[in-house]
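User: Hey, my collaborator sent me this sequence without any context and asked if I could get a structure. I don't really work with proteins. Can you help?
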Amino acid sequence: MTASHLLIVNPRSAGGSTGRRWQEIERQLRDRLPPFDIAFTNGPRHGTRLAADAAGRYEVVVAVGGDGTVDEVVNGLVDAAGAVRPDVAAGVIPLGTGADFVRSLGIPRELEQAAALLARGQRREIDVGRACFRAFDGSQAVRYFV
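Assistant: No problem. I've predicted the 3D structure and written it out in structure-token form, which is a compact way to encode the shape of the chain:
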């Protein structure tokens, strides 16, 4: 069976507990979500690269972690011209210590409830902002945010 979802997992989220508890978390998610593949982040901006590579191959790319993981996935789903890719949706399973984004959207913090919401497949549009700034090395940089 072909997976419709890619879960981009930050194993260091929640102080590393996501990685330590991953086997149990995965079991619970497999019981509740459509078929999915998994990709683990291995450092800063890796989630962005994983999300960009997933666009066009998966219907839904899911950030599994905290606000930083959401940020990386969102930046991967915006193309080089600054347009949100229309062929893929973003989802969130909140497992981080921060929860500002999920709180603002009313996404439950509890794993089972967040997975059930994601499994229902209801989509809604949200705003994506663009920040242009000078990076630490002095170069011009652009990042997107939700």
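In plain terms: DSSP finds six helices and six strands in the chain. You can pass these tokens on to your collaborator as they are.
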